[in-house]
Each structure stands twice: as structure tokens, then as C-alpha cells.
Amino acid sequence: MSLLFSPFDLTGLQLPNRVVMAPMTRSRAETGVPDDQTAIYYAQRASAGLIITEGAPVSQQGNGYLHTPGIYTDEQGAGWAKVTQAVHKRGGRIFVQLWHVGRVSHTSLQPDGAAPVSASALRAEGALSYAIGPDGQPGQQPASIPRALATDEIAGITADFVAAAKRAMLAGFDGVEIHGANSYLFEQFLNANSNQRADRYGGSVENRLRFLMETIDAVAAEIGMNRTGVRISPFGRLSGMTGYDGEADTWLAVAEALEARQPAYVHLSDQLTIGGEAMPAGFPSQFCKTFTGTLIAAGGFTKETGEQALEDGALDLIAFGKPFIGNPDLVERMRNDWPINEAPREAFYGGTGSAGYTDFPTWREQVDTQQTNAAQKDK
Ligand SMILES: Cc1cc2nc3c(=O)[nH]c(=O)nc-3n(C[C@H](O)[C@H](O)[C@H](O)COP(=O)(O)O)c2cc1C
């Protein structure tokens, strides 16, 4: 019997299958507000057991890429409400990913052209922000040198996450995912190289994970721990993140701290298929010895490897990223062994209207088109 297509109780939210749509930035929100196309896009993918939206910046300071839909104004909240309504109408479930990029940003995106913020004033080497260049045109820009957050500013960022979570629940989301992965602000605090602080947010493992844990606790106090998920990328190497002594112990300590809290889930982001490195072999099984709650992983899964991973027992849910871009009915395609389309790389980020976004057909639509084309050819 397939586990991938079997139901799962996510702290009271009933998922009809264990296929999760991974968070994917699509850079389609011209004005930073989700629009009708956003609603269509997510509603088309409502047969996923759970949708996790693209990263939604919790503040202007938290934004590192043009055209990403935020969740810090009433207008953005109203845009997201249209998205959740459309998904729920199609019988789906949807969490929003709450995002602060930290140093992976550019002065042209920041309030008053200020420097982006981070744990320490260390540039994210090799990292690119999608921002306004010196020529006034949008394009990829090297991340600007950040300034270190003052100790008393950190609670303000936690408050931005709480406000965004509150706004998310008002907009009808089923929960939120705190983005602690992929080199962004929380990882900049977790990593002993990017965090050179001497206050209670730097130095020891306990100190480096304090900001993430305080934010999880504060968000959960507002919306409930059972509606609060968290994404991390153990041993992450994207956007200038590097290895350090005691890295394995850091991730074990994160697992312990999360076990003590029992969030709705922990979502492991393996970076091999997004330009980074794979997590050490067997890491999820090690992690789940300490963190016994719901565990999701993403990164290069197929139906077969996802099914196998569920059978092996470490993971409860499997997240698929890129396959969801070109296949709105990915669940049905995998369930029935129908062909899976590969979306062109150019479609991943940016663009307007439906092209490369909401115009990927379901398998049935694809077959209908093929039949119509064949019939016309025969005439
Ligand atoms: C176009 C694109 C945008 C992404 N944006 C995000 C994001 O906003 N937040 C995030 O945590 N991960 C993001 N990711 C990573 C995915 O969630 C996922 O972990 C990754 O694609 C690996 O899964 P896959 O091999 O099934 O694609 C993105 C990936 C892609 C391809």
C-alpha cells in the first residue's frame, strides 16, 4: 500500500495525502501584493496534501528580491485572503512561509536605502539579491554589506514575525512556516561563522539558536504551536554559508530545542538540487531520534524515492518543489503514473500574466489538447 497517498493528521489538520508543495519564490508580484494569478496558481495545486507558499517577507527590511509578495500590509493580507479562499474552495490546505532574508539583500530594497541587517557585519560572499542596479534597472546584484543588529532590535524582528503570523491567520491560512533555512536571517544567527556576536545571541550554541527559538515561541503564543511549522537546512551551504567546528552539535541542539517545543512540523531543506550540497547521508534518521514530531524533507524527491523514504520511517511527509511548477496535478500524475512535465528554468522566476505560471496543463488537459491536435491534423 502506498504511504505517499495515505492520509496524515497534522496536529488536527487532516491531510488527504503526504505530498507537500515546497515553498517556491516565483517573483511574480509586481507590487509585492499577491493577485488573482497567485490565487489561481495555488488553487490549481490544491490536491497537494499541504501547500507551503513561497517565502513572504515579514517586513520591507526582510525582503531581498523584487516582486516577492509580502505579508506586512493590509493590502498584502487582502491579497493572501483571496489565495487562501481559492485554495480552500478547491479542498486544499495552505501554510504561508514567513521570511526575513537578513544580509541576502541590497540597499535598493531597504527602507531609506539603508544597509541590510544580519547577525554580524559580514557580507554574504557570492550571494545575489534581485534588486535595482546602479543603472536603475532591475537585475541580480551582489548582496550589500550588512550591519549587525543591535541586541535590542532583535525583539522587533520577532514582533514582525508575530504580526505577520497574526495577519496570516486573519487571511485564512491554516498555519505558518518560519523560514529558518537556506542562508537567510535565522541561519545567519545559527551559523558560527556568520554570527560573530558577543551578546546573548552569539557565541555558544544555546545563544546562536536563541533568536529562532524566541521567534517560534512568540509566534506560537499568538497562533498556537500546532499551527507553527519551521524550516531549517542543516549543514546549509547556500549564499556564502560555510562549515564550522561544532556544526553537527549545533543541529543536534536545534533538534533538542524543537523537541521541547513540538511545532506543527520541522521541514528539512536539502540543498543539493538548488545549487548547494546534500545533507550528510542518514541525517534525517539521526535528527528524528531527537526530534520525534512530524518531519518533512524536500530536495530531489520522486514518487519512488519519496515512497521509500516514508517506508524507511524517518520522514512523515515529502515535499516536492520544481515538479509542482510544471504540474498543477502532480499528486494525480504521481498516483496514476502519468508523465511528469519539466518546467523550463526560465519560468521559475519572474514574468507576468499566466505564461509559465498558471498555464501548465493537467494531464487530462494535456491529453485533450493532444487529441484535438491529432484530429485537426487528420482533417
Ligand atoms: C524556483 C524556486 C524557488 C524557491 N523558493 C524558495 C522559498 O521561497 N523558500 C524556501 O524555503 N525554499 C525555496 N526553494 C527551495 C524549495 O522549497 C525546495 O526545497 C527545492 O526546490 C528542492 O526541492 P526539489 O528538488 O523538489 O525542487 C525554491 C526552489 C525553487 C526551484
From TrEMBL:
Domain NADH:flavin oxidoreductase/NADH oxidase N-terminal: 4-337
Cofactor(s) the protein requires to work: FMN
Tree of life domain: Bacteria
One annotated Gene Ontology cellular component of this protein: cytosol
SUPFAM superfamilies: FMN-linked oxidoreductases
CDD domains (UniProt xref): OYE_like_FMN
Annotated GO MF terms: FMN binding; oxidoreductase activity, acting on the CH-CH group of donors, NAD or NADP as acceptor
Family matches, as InterPro entries: Aldolase_TIM (IPR013785), OxRdtase_FMN_N (IPR001155), Oye-like (IPR045247)
UniProt keyword annotations, A-Z: Oxidoreductase
Family membership: Belongs to the NADH:flavin oxidoreductase/NADH oxidase family.
Protein's UniProt name: 2,4-dienoyl-CoA reductase
